[in-house]
Amino acid sequence: MKQTIKIGLFGFGTVGTSVYQVIAKAKNAHAEIRRICVRDIEKPRNAILPDGILTDRPDDIFDDPTINLIVEVVDNSEASYSIVTEALRRGIPVVSGSKAMIASHLPELMELQDRYGTALLYDASSCGSIPVIRNLEEYYDNDLLLEVKGILNGSSNYILSRVFDHGEDYNSALRKAQDLGFAESDPTFDISGIDSLYKLIIITVHALGVYVAPDRVLTYGISTIHDDDIRYAREKRVKIKLVAQVVKVGDSEFTMFVMPEFVDRSRYIYSVDNEYNGVVIRGECYDRQFMFGKGAGGLPTASSILSDVMARRHGYRYEYKKTGYIDTPAYTTDVTLRIYARYAGTDIHAILPFEKVREQYISEQGNYIIGDISLSDLIANRHLLDAPDVFIANIPLFFSDRDD
Q1: Residues 114 and 181 placed together within one structural domain of the fold
Q2: CB 37 within 8 A of CB 57
Q3: What is d(CA 360, CA 326) in angstroms, rounded to the nearest whole number?
Q4: Is there a domain that residue 306 lies in?
Q5: CATH number for the domain that contains residue 340
Q6: Domain of 63: which CATH number?
Q7: What domain range includes position 83?
Q8: pTM over 0.85
């Protein structure tokens, strides 16, 4: 596709407006946006647009024979699914930033790409401006990869950075994140860990060649973090970060989860602050490699979308190479984690069957326990851990012998 790329853009919110601006600035992209489909044409826009470019009819884009690429940045998963699948069935390449939709439907989307001989690119769906998917797909296209771990959500990371680096309380930090546009008015998607989970699902397909449905993965966020947890972390000279990871636990198995984690200053992600993301890739022969960049905001996401647009100009598509490996590893939850659990009135011992208790503190003000527990037991009892007086965090064990 060396001719000029003529784009049909779906969505013109923060990201869509940024995509329009970035493509207009990138003269060497040889790309132009011909039509923009929105829900409400009359809505005021923060951009000066040519007459007739806006439409509220999807078919004005799908039926335009001059459009040879669709870019989809709508904020509704069902609408995103409809747009992407229609484009693939019509043989039109599509670029998407919809992490929730992709993570929920990726096997079907891979099959549609094969059936109709077209491409779906979505580097913007994971980690904003960090090209983690393309790197996993191309550079780490072998079975030596052991782990992908990092901070995948800029909103929650901004909140925790304000708490640990600036001494703000959690609620003040959350309000500031909302005022700056890093967190939505309803921040649940970010602080619950769901946003990180969707990104991890996508990353795992490109890292290990295996799709795991979101409802099978332990996901625990930061919404119940308390001053006691922050005080404990400071006493131990660590920070609490919301961390997602997929890790091989043997030649034939891997595990994955999203949890707050105690991170000490020797780790790369310790210094990943504000709205930035940081991803550590660990391999058998190359130890750890680190990628860092902005993970929230319209322009960082738009820059990633521009990269996918440019890639399509050269005919690029994901090959999903690792899904064809004969010895693809199997997902397991039969692994032992070490966790910190803070609680007050909740009977944490009845909820969590610890294999071994390492440390315990009980007082009138609050209690905590540090112990070893099976990931499968955490998943089985996950619905009981949402009480406001409970907070859990991972104490990392994987590869600790290599990091000493």
Answers
A1: no
A2: yes
A3: 46
A4: no
A5: 3.30.360.10
A6: 3.40.50.720
A7: 5-121
A8: yes
Least confident of 212-216, 332-336, 395-399: 395-399
Residue 116 and residue 223: Cα distance in Å, rounded?
43
Evaluate if residue 404 carries a pLDDT over 60.
no
| Residue 159 shares a structural domain with residue 201 | yes
Residues in a beta bridge with 238: 264
Q: Where are the beta strands (DSSP E) in 198-343?
A: 218-219, 238-248, 253-264, 276-283, 287-294, 330-331, 336-343
**How far is the C-alpha of 307 from the C-alpha of 330, rounded, in Å?**
32
Section 170-199 average pLDDT = 89
**Measuring CA to CA, how many Å separate 261 from each of 47, 151, 233, 322, 399?**
41, 10, 10, 29, 15
Strand runs labelled E in 192-303: 218-219, 238-248, 253-264, 276-283, 287-294
- 355 pLDDT above the threshold of 60: yes
In the prediction, which pLDDT does 229 show? Answer: 96
Q: Is 210 exposed, middle or buried (0-12, 13-18, 19+ CB in 10 A)?
A: middle
